[in-house]
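Sequence, please.
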């Protein structure tokens, strides 16, 4: 496994390759708007960490592959400029100057509206599970928290233990804000705290799909194993119990 921070996947690894973060190396990014931009190293890599490009080229060489002769990130970028057609009119010097370079010409792209087809959820409410719970991603959820969970600022405001409920359902069940409850599905259960949300419809619960350090508060226990690889989990039928 090649990563910058320790995570749960490490326990499955035969070997761990410590990678440096973006602040510990230099290179280029293509961001969400298609802009190619150069970034510079701020600090030297910590410990035994190495840049991703260095690790990949070293592995490739030891496996006998050709074409991985790069000595630094600028050589990689220069080859990319030669190969990618949309980069043909730029140079590495342009990047070093901070020039704004796009990978595509926005005005030449054809766009059309493609409506999504509605697909009803396979999961239905029942007498045993009278609520449907949706799972959303926190705004700071990035790459399964492998990076954002290392931010002290984000960690200070993140709390995956809130269970959102409508005022009508909270009143019916005599639940108060902050009260500890247990949400249970056919696959498992998890603990959380009541958060009354006025905009939430009756019969619907909400929770953030975050990996909690405390397994009791991990919402992943609710989800059937065959759905955990999906980024579109739909609605899960659940029931609420007060924590004893």
């Amino acid at each position: 496994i090649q990563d910058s921070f320790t995570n749960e996947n490490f326990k499955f690894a035969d070997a761990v390759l410590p990678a440096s973060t973006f602040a510990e190396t230099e290179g280029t990014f293509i961001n969400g708007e298609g802009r190619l931009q150069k970034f510079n190293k701020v600090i030297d890599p910590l410990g035994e960490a190495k840049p991703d490009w260095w690790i990949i080229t070293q592995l490739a060489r030891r496996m006998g592959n050709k074409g991985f002769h790069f000595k630094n990130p600028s050589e990689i970028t220069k080859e990319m400029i030669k190969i990618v057609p949309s980069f043909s009119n730029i140079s590495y010097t342009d990047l070093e100057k901070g020039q704004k370079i796009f990978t595509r010409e926005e005005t030449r792209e054809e766009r059309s509206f493609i409506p999504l087809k509605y697909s009803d959820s396979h999961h239905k409410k029942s007498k045993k599970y009278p609520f449907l719970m949706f799972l959303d991603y926190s705004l700071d959820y990035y790459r399964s928290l492998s990076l954002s969970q290392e931010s002290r600022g984000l960690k200070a405001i993140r709390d995956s233990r809130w269970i959102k409920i409508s005022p009508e359902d909270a009143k019916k069940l005599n639940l108060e804000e902050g009260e500890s409850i247990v949400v249970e599905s056919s696959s498992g259960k998890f603990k959380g705290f009541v958060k009354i949300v006025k905009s939430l419809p009756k019969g619907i619960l909400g929770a953030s799909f975050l990996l909690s350090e405390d397994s009791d508060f991990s919402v992943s226990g609710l989800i059937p194993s065959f759905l955990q690889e999906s980024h579109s989990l739909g609605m899960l039928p659940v029931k609420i119990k007060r924590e004893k």
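The CA atoms of residues 129 and 238 lie 5 Å apart.
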